[in-house]
Design a protein that fits this description.
single chain, mainly alpha
Amino acid sequence: MTATAHALVAGAILTRFSDPVAASFLAFGSHYMMDSIPHWDFGTNWRGRSKTLTGALAIFDTAMAFTVAYILYAGKMGILPVTIVVGASLVPDWIETPWYIFFASQKKHEPGPKASLLERMAYTIYKLPNIFHAKAQFPLGFFTQVATVAFFLVLLK
């Protein structure tokens, strides 16, 4: 899912469960539930793009996520709780980032036999949460994402 999709659901969780600690745990968990639905996001087909472009798209998506969350939820819930809960909803994607940035490439899909401990750890941290990911190509994956977010927004109303 895009960061914006996770932020929308995180904000809805915060409005339903106003305790930022509880809402953060729920938002963190919702990330994995949402990612298990086949979806498109800016990480789909990343091996076909430069790391610079993929990084720029990720930064843009994260900035949009916080902006949309602040616009929709900060007036009612406060900027600090929104920041905390949206941040918690995005942590699963952020912990995968070191593998992408420092080690992965278009041709490198896993550590080699002489990989450092740091590289192997980064790969393990990337790979474990990815068992939940279900990708779909655009536009179908975009529509499933919209439907997933809509479902959670209605559920949390």
